[in-house]
Amino acid sequence: MDSSVAEQSSLLPLILAREVDLKMRAEAWHRMGTQTFGLYMADTPLMEWVWQPSKKERAKKAVLYEAVVLLDGIEQFVLRICGPTRKISQMLVNDEAALIGCLLHLESKNRMKTAHIMEMQDRLMHLYDLVRASRSMHQTTSDVITEMTRAALAVLDAEGTFLYLKLARPVSACHQFGPLSEADSQDYLKQVQALDQPHRVPFVSPRAAGQEILLLPVRVSGAVQGVLGFIDQANRFTPLSKKLAEIVAEQAGARLEHMMLYDSTLQQQRLSTEMELARQVQMHLLPQKQPTVPGLDICGMTFPALQVGGDFYDFIVNAQTFTFIVGDVSGKGLSAAMMMAMTRAILRSTASFAFAIMTPEDILTQTNEDVYDDYNRVTTFTTAFVGQYEIDPLRDRLTIANAGHSPVIYCPANQPARLLEADAPPLGVLETISAANHLIALKPGDVLIVATDGFSEAENSADEIFGYDRLLELADQTRHLSAWEIVKAFSEVAITFEGDRPQHDDRTIVVIKRLSPPDEDAHGTA
Known about the structure:
alpha+beta, Beta-Lactamase, Phosphatase 2c, domain 1, 3 domains, 5-stranded antiparallel sheet, elongated
């Protein structure tokens, strides 16, 4: 094949695109004895095939036939075929020229469609760039709608565009649109909310007459909360353009909804982080290890229902006494945790008073005076139990005072467990309370269990509460165990009782067990 390229011809790409088809046509003619097959513009060959004739073919007379190739009704090329007269006629060459014209016409149409598709692809790429850019989590609502209006102009052949949203506060953006009043914006929004579909309205512009605005609803969280508008000059928008406009509107709503969800998630994450920090602070306010007191086995633990809670306990050991405190602030969560921190600090400060030994009654009475005004303002209260053990192996005396706290279980050796009831209201209920001291001769084997109502009020799937009877029975069953094992048993039994039901209240428990002399030696060695 001898192929010449006429670069000066703008039609050459059509011929080159059909080179394979033209070659097939040329070879078909060659099988009929043709010696030359080519397309020419004037005398310049655009594509040409020449075959050397055989001796037999040279003996035959060859004739050159020409036919005009029309493209869209215009003479563009000349088809020249040289071959034997008995097999080739002018009519066949004319038909071939017409066929080639059809092929080139189809190629031209395909190229126009390809160009149109590429144009649409460019527009879609603008949408893609917009989607990719909108993934940035650092954009404000104003940034997003500004990007949307610019993308709308890039996607559609519009004179101008605007986007108006009425969320927590109205926000809008315009591009090549001119100023848009709040009244006009709200009017457009009301129209799309009423119709809930794209529609046109007249637009009066000093720049040109006969303009309209294509209004599209913007849905955020399932409701029409915005309107996207395009200025259309002389109704030039095609169905595809309108579809792309709807895509832009949908993308705007989806992006804004995503932003709102992201902001909500971010706030939740921040709150969760702050709550986790609060939990760590609260847990560090509680005793970090169990105290060592001669003659006693001690264990205290708390199990918040949420990340933070209102339950607390504390241990204060000095040369003469061991004081332990258990409290339960009304409510749950952060508010209860804040009051818990304040109340615990006051109780601890009062119990650690350096100039005199404060009895449990003194501690509760003084603390109530300190917190009453604050509690009264926030309408809360705290149940509190204070126990004070004299570190004297000859006395074994435990003094307790109770301000509305329950359950407190006393398990004397060789006797059934029983509840010790409070004789004073919770802290913060009355301006003055009288939580009297009560003495207990704590003998070897005796166990005192001070818990919060998260144990007694644990509920199962049948809406049954654990109750005091089960607690007393559990205390009798576990009294022979160590203090830590009793705490562990109470927690496990409460969890088992609840089953699949989530814990709804904080749980705190302190166990004080009087050791017998052999146990005391072993406990001290351990």
